[in-house]
Design goal:
single chain, 375 residues, alpha/beta, Carbamate kinase, Archaeosine Trna-guanine Transglycosylase, Chain: A, domain 4, 8-stranded mixed β-sheet, 5-stranded mixed β-sheet, 13 helices, 15 strands, globular, binds adenosine-5'-diphosphate, binds ligand VHF, EC 2.7.2.11
Amino acid sequence: MLTEADVRRAIAGAQTVVVKVGSSSLTKPSGHLDTAKLNALVAALSSAALMGARVVLVSSGAIAAGFGPLGFDSRPTDVATQQATAAVGQGLLMAQYEASFGRFGVRVGQILITAEDTIRPQQYRNVQRTLGRLLDLGVVPIVNENDSLASNEIRFGDNDRLSALVANLVRADALVLLTDVDALYTAPPSEPGARRIAFVPDVVAALDDVTVTGPTSGVGTGGMVTKLEAARVAAVSGIPAVLTSAVNAGPALMGDPVGTAFAPVKQRGSSRRLWIGFAANPRGTLVADAGAASAVRGGRASLLSAGVLEVHGDFSAGDPVWIDDEVGTHLAKGLSGFDSEEIPQMLGRTTVQLRRFLGEEYAHPLVHRDNLVLV
Ligand SMILES: Nc1ncnc2c1ncn2[C@@H]1O[C@H](COP(=O)(O)OP(=O)(O)O)[C@@H](O)[C@H]1O
Ligand SMILES: N[C@@H](CCC(=O)OP(=O)(O)O)C(=O)O
């Protein structure tokens, strides 16, 4: 069992670290950038980068920095205005980061990700390769969701979960979640009797003992709920995490006992399969018969069309789908090998039959086991 000291030490020694900062830590309630806060954060991150750490910054704040300059009194609530606001705010945010990191001679590069893009294997590899190359070049990648183009049904919305996924993608050694509260508390800090939690040895078990709410700042989106989800994703990916306020960024990176440290609960898994499991928002369903369901449940089996009874939804090859059993229980998420309209003619057919009747290009699993994650 890892102790708090072990986890803090692991964070201090991290070669690659993903730091996520929330809107409330970068902006003013009026909807403008708070340059003093941003500069203080950049000073802490630059010193880690200059000491040789590979730092990825996942930064929110596009919408929160854009609504003031556009003349709005508060964060817009309709999607079109949010997307337009993000387009304005993202530019302002990057201009400030560039100037601020530039004072330390640190170069930055912008990566905007949509959930949709990254589910596809090809895009996933592109993101991974670009981030890796930026880090090799000594650049601090600054990642945000591509809010202006993200479609509403399939978006991260908050950057907390995105940061845990990015931590997987770059095989980070630590995840640092920076917000406007100094730590995780047993209940929202405004509640009397809420106590600070310094160390969470098992985030899955701890979730039962804390009360959390959504955002309270008026500019953030996820609140503590999504931060704990990010800490959980990191923990089950074998990545230690720390959650604290943005002003504690420096001490947190140095392993000082600030905020809340989360121990990893398992060894690192395959980043790609984790990505499918956590990020993918299924577009349809493949219903497996009893035999296929038990093969899928057993792990390491592909889903063959011979064992699939029904297909639901409208999706393309490469899109995420649910694999359900006959009573509708979700067994797994996976990336479909075929478009939804191609599948009906394949149902119930063996690989030999597919090859004979439909041709070689159909003689493949509906979902290959490398693209399948049990739920
Ligand atoms: N149990 C809890 N411990 C700490 N903070 C909590 C808890 N439950 C809710 N919160 C609230 O979550 C807020 C942080 O979420 P949010 O406003 O989305 O921040 P960010 O913009 O940094 O993502 C804190 O200001 C705090 O009021
Ligand atoms: N991508 C959005 C982030 C939304 C948001 O507010 O996130 P967070 O402050 O991390 O809860 C933006 O840049 O405005």
